[in-house]
Amino acid sequence: MKKVLHIKSSVRQDASFSIQLGHAIIDKLKEQYGEISVSELDLNKTPLPYLDARHIQAFYTPVEHLTDEDRNALYHSDKAIEDLMAADIIVIGAPLYNFGIHSSLKSWIDHICRAGVTFRYTEQGPEGLVKGKKVYIAMAAGGIYSSGPYQAYDFVSPYLKAVLGFLGMTDVSLASAEGVKMPGVGEHALEKAIDSIAV
Asked: Measured on CA atoms in the order 66, 67, 71, 73, is the torsion positive or negative?
């Protein structure tokens, strides 16, 4: 049975286009694979703390030297990485807020990027250690960013593809509901995005 991790980062909950698009991706995965196991992580209901000095210290402390305080600081990171590693497929809901991802999603990324755990440095350069995963990005945007004059303003999909690829997740597909706030476009944006999903 395929294990799916659905990460939500929109503050709009049921009204969110990225969440609706994420659910549509999961529906298509069910059609493709039959029975699947889905775990949801809503980063606005259960946000991960922003990194501070305690986290960074714990990240770079050898296991044998970890204190109880260090282990407490590692809790959210360890859990996020455990859930990530357990999943076969990851669906990431990522609305475009001010040209980038929501801070809750950035915090999740900060917690899963761990040298020696999810990536390592070798003589040939960095090597991602999170391999064999399929990732779907469910992106939503008020305007059009896939082409045209505002294409360079999209710092959601390029960033996510870059950081996920750095960690070893190179099989990444993007489904984008864009123009959701534009008259004449928004009425069909979600439907068009759902039709574009290929699993």
From this structure: negative
**pLDDT tens, 115-161?**
999 999 999 999 999 999 999 999 999 999 999 999 999 999 999 99
Q: Which of 88, 84, 109, 85 is nearest to 4 (CA)?
A: 88
Beta bridge partners of 105: none
Is residue 169 exposed (0-12), middle (13-18) or buried (19+ Cβ within 10 Å)? buried
Give the Cα-Cα-Cα angle 196, 7, 107 (nearest 5 degrees): 125
Crossing angle (nearest 10°) for helices 68-86 and 103-112: 100
Which residues lie closer than 8 Å to 139 by C-beta, 6 or more apart? 18, 21, 94, 95, 96, 156, 157, 174, 175, 176, 177, 178
- Model pLDDT for residues 36-45, shown as the tens digit of each residue: 999 999 999 9
Tell me the helix, strand and coil percentages in the chain, rounded to 5.
Answer: 40, 25, 35
Q: pTM (2 decimals)?
A: 0.96
- Residue 72 carries which side chain, given as an amino acid letter? N
